[in-house]
Design goal:
By secondary structure, this protein is α/β, with parallel strands linked by helices. Helices cover about 50% and strands about 5% of the residues. The protein contains 13 helices and six strands. The protein has helices spanning about 1-10, 40-50, 70-75, 100-110, 120-150, 155-180, 200-210, 210-215, 220-230, 235-240, 255-260, 265-275, 285-290; strands at about 10-15, 20, 30-35, 55-60, 85, 95. Strands 1-2-4-3-5-6 form a six-stranded mixed beta sheet, with helices on one face. A hairpin with a 6-residue loop joins strand 5 (about 85) and strand 6 (about 95). The protein starts with a helix and ends in a 21-residue tail after the last helix.
Amino acid sequence: MAGERKAADDCKMLTRFARLVPNESCAKPNGILLYAADTMNNWKVSMMLEELQVPYDVILVDLMKNAQKNPSYMKNNPNGRTPTLIDNTVDPPFPVFESGAILIYLAEKFKSTLLPKDVRGKSEVIQWVMWQMSGLGPMMGQTMYFKRIAYPVTKDPDTRLGFSVERFEKETIRLLKTLDSRLEKRDFICGAGRGQLSIADISCYGYACSHWWTGIDVSKMPHLLTWLKTMSEREATKNGVRVPGTSNLGPKGPIFEELRVNKELQKSLEAHAKEKGRMFFGWSDLTEIFLKGSQAGPWTTHVSDSKGKKI
């Protein structure tokens, strides 16, 4: 009984529809279960479920401990990444991995207008989802990786990483300009006229709105900025980006949405990097500021020197 009470105490409502639970045994046996971490790819699914107004349980995947590589997790997601959705409303339960695939699955499962039924309309939306999955997400992700993770922990980073940073930065700018051009005279990415909200918008929002984290200036992309404002004001977006509600740094750190919108926090992060003599701010600064150097994240061992030693 005491164990059951403790498990119940560990459950927490994150939004009107999302409930954080410590493990599978605490999740609703016939509901939707989302394994998530605090990243843009995970936002897609929580935003989608919030738009659908479907109750769902959430289990935090602790990236600091590489929980996404545990065999128990990888049985449902062989790629060892987040997010993963388990549909327990069907028998046997059906796991879905890859954020774009989850969006399509949920739209079809709940017969949502977020994915049109007609062939051309559906194809248009899926084209832009695939564009995000193959282009915008990976290119922005690589820009973030080289600037925010690899650069601060690499010896002689200008020589070793300069080309990579420039390459992915240029491609990120090109892709954001592509989206900006698409959104001219449109409220949403797909649909006739000014468009209609779809999973294409949900898929693209998380990365596009994180331009500060990539160090990309979007001030001359007015259509993109208008669309970002439109999306950010939706209740489902406001709630979805705060799931799973815990920073990848743990409870001492800010969730990414706070980091994304808090200008004072951004300034302090940039100032800390400058004080340390780093060209780019990143996870090293976050770790030093919020964890006081007491705990190293997985990102601190990503780069090896020329002899294969961790640096």
